[in-house]
Amino acid sequence: MSIEEDDRQLRHECGVFGCIASDPWPTDLDVAQIISLGLLALQHRGQESAGIAMSEGDNHTHFNVKKGMGLVSNIFNDEATKNLKGNLGIGHTRYSTSAGSEEVNCQPFVVHSAHGALAVAHNGELFNAGRLRRMVLARGVGLSTHSDSELITQALCLNPPDIEIDGPDWPARIRHFMELTKLSYSIVIMEKDRIFGVRDPYGNRPLCIGKLMSLTEPNKAEEGWVVSSESCGFLSMGAKYVRDVYPGEIVEFTKEGFHTVSVMGRPHNRPQAFCIFEYVYFARPDSIYEGQMVYSVRLRSGIVLARESFVEADIVSSVPESGTAAAHGFSMKSNIPFAEVLYKNRYVGRTFIQPNARLRRLGVAKKFGAIVENVAGKRLILIDDSIVRGTTMGPIIKLLRDAGAKEVHIRVASPPLKFTCNMGINIPTKAELIANKLTIEQLAKHIGADTLAYLSVEGLKEAVTEKMPNKNAVEVGHCTACLTGEYPEELTF
Fold it and tell me: How many helices (H) and strands (E) does the chain have?
């Protein structure tokens, strides 16, 4: 992300990951290490806490669990992963939205029901969490946290609509939960010897499947399966992207492989609503969504932005690193050369202290330096992925002008943020979003830019769908609620 999270206050809730080894068990595959690598690749989706729950596959009452506050690399060192034995497991890395940043809210949540242990990890935010909480409490179920993710765990332990004859019917219980709430979740669920991957009927949050390939015998059958919020970590663990979990799909993973248990449709044949801001901001550029690389979508966003909002300049550049792909696209379309103008200091933490008023006014200096040779006397086009509060772009422009920039034109590779999310992204209140306070002309003046332009909503949709393999399918659709105020379903409390 291009600037400090404290300034932008635009954060994803979490990432989920699961892994199961193929037959035979016990496996030689280091499942805990693979999950740790998967969570490390998903660290950008949440940095407050992380956890892993493991199962040997032969005991329905006990899981090996480790959770803690902080980064994945600090919690899961070599010693920690060695102690997490098992043939299957799920993991989670978290940033809080609906509940506080406390150890009690760390996931995966593990409950011990009459039918055995169950572990759940959730990405998203339940649209009707208040109603579901009241329903769970009315059934006499106690809740230990304010997390809507715990509601999922407890709702799964409630009896499903049909009578169970021979033990719990977990697929039926999952379908029952999906009837209770349609948004927003991607979930991995583990019981004794299997994992379920579940995506809400709108497909609002991402989830994909990977195949663990043999590193020594290329023609050997798969060594296991992984399910993840993003595919970006697959290559680092020797996995191959297979496909997305479909909206409304329940996928069951066992040591024999995976198969679809059920697919739940959307109410009233409404379109899919995959979060379009995943492409803009949250996903790693090397992830695959809907059959296409996120980097390529960002590149096309820059191409469309150049077509919509061209301006004469000497150099196209970006706020590193979030705007870089779009800046290359803008450069390609405009025939204006790309050059770096900002250096990002990667060793500045969020807890940096600014001891006096002078350093506070120069706050951006701790994060960026200007590459003077590329700036002095030049007309610059600076690309960023979004403007949230507008508190950081002004100091960046001042830094560039102090380095000798002749003109600074800001181009934003997404439409203005005007609405809150309520589906797993922590976006400030409408009153805090700068696009609701100032017109484009007023904002340009406020941050000190010569001109300012955003990518249009239609332009973003074009960039996202242009190379999508099934772009003409009737069910394709994207959630633009934070940009347009058009939510997939009405928010209920």
Answer: 16, 25
